[in-house]
Amino acid sequence: MSSIAIVGAGLGGLVLACTLHRQGVTTTVYEAEESAAARTQGDLLDIHSHTGQAALRDAGVFDGFRALIRPGHDAKRITDRAGTIVFDWPGSPLGTRPEVDRGELRSMLIASLPEGTIRWGRKAIGVITTPGRRPQVNFVGGSSITADLVVGADGAWSKVRRSVSSVAPVYTGTCFVKVGSAPGQLLSREGAALIGRGTLMAVAPGQGILAHHNADGTLSGYVAINAPLELMTSVDTGDPSGMRAMIKRRFENWAPALTALAFDNISDPVLRPIYALPITHRWERVPGVTLIGDAAHLMSPFAGEGANLAMFDGAALAAEIVAHPGHIEEALSAYEDALFPRSAEVAQRSASNLQQFFGPDAPRSAVDLFAGLLT
């Protein structure tokens, strides 16, 4: 039986491992983090019926997924910079895009795997490929492993990607500043009413405030700014007052009720520049190595498909491995032949949606986008 090494225990890598385990195929997952609890896995995800949900069915964990759904938390509200509501969708009991907590979904997938499948604290630094030999994964500290198949599920800055592609992600021009309630701090009554039950998207040309009302009464979200990367990285994220001052300058003409959502929740700001791979990113077949998820097709989050596609990739790759027992290269060729056009279509939509959120016609363009998706 072929040995399979999955580099990265994100949603895509875990779905791949779970789906193969369900089919009796053993894998080993190598994860840089020291444990499942090493960091908060953050944010809510819309899980789409045709991608993420389909993958979770294939992985045999659909019932576990359903238990995590937060009914109605898929509600969407859009306002302009004055706080005027221009789109308000109340959500649905389940719908085709139910929301779950990313961390809870990841924990459920981890618990679905046999003990010892995941090797924690194994940070990959590269993959060596040599004709006629199995690919070798090298880790921090000097250790290494070889496998018949190495799957890069290691995200935006994938080390595995370098063995199949020289292309690196590029900055899209939009930067997020992650904001959230301080420990023990609940949303004000006014803030909760402004956000509504699900997600508030206050958008204007070049900027926005995106906030979600969590089930425990706290806020999580992002301030979005179109600006040169050098300008954004010059702000000291270790100084919340400096970040507040920068946001205050950028949002001085916004309704105070909206800016308060950001100002009142900048206790530990995190800068998240939005990067993307080229829409048509692909690579020549490299024996024994392939990619899934962000490692293969990093894109902006504005198609809502990042996690969904990663899981779908994992399930699709598993299906090809099972369909081609003992023939890894045939499986990889079939997988990649379907992957490239699928991911290019979604990446194109993601790039277009980014413009609809923060381009010159916002918020009207964002309203048109969601009206087409949800109504």
TrEMBL record:
<keyword id="KW-0285">Flavoprotein</keyword>
<dbReference type="GO" id="GO:0071949">
    <property type="term" value="F:FAD binding"/>
</dbReference>
<protein>
    <submittedName>
        <fullName>Fad dependent oxidoreductase</fullName>
    </submittedName>
</protein>
<keyword id="KW-0503">Monooxygenase</keyword>
<keyword id="KW-0560">Oxidoreductase</keyword>
<feature type="domain" description="FAD-binding">
    <location>
        <begin position="288"/>
        <end position="349"/>
    </location>
</feature>
<dbReference type="Pfam" id="PF01494">
    <property type="entry name" value="FAD_binding_3"/>
</dbReference>
<keyword id="KW-0274">FAD</keyword>
<feature type="domain" description="FAD-binding">
    <location>
        <begin position="3"/>
        <end position="165"/>
    </location>
</feature>
<dbReference type="InterPro" id="IPR002938">
    <property type="entry name" value="FAD-bd"/>
</dbReference>
<dbReference type="GO" id="GO:0004497">
    <property type="term" value="F:monooxygenase activity"/>
</dbReference>
<dbReference type="InterPro" id="IPR036188">
    <property type="entry name" value="FAD/NAD-bd_sf"/>
</dbReference>
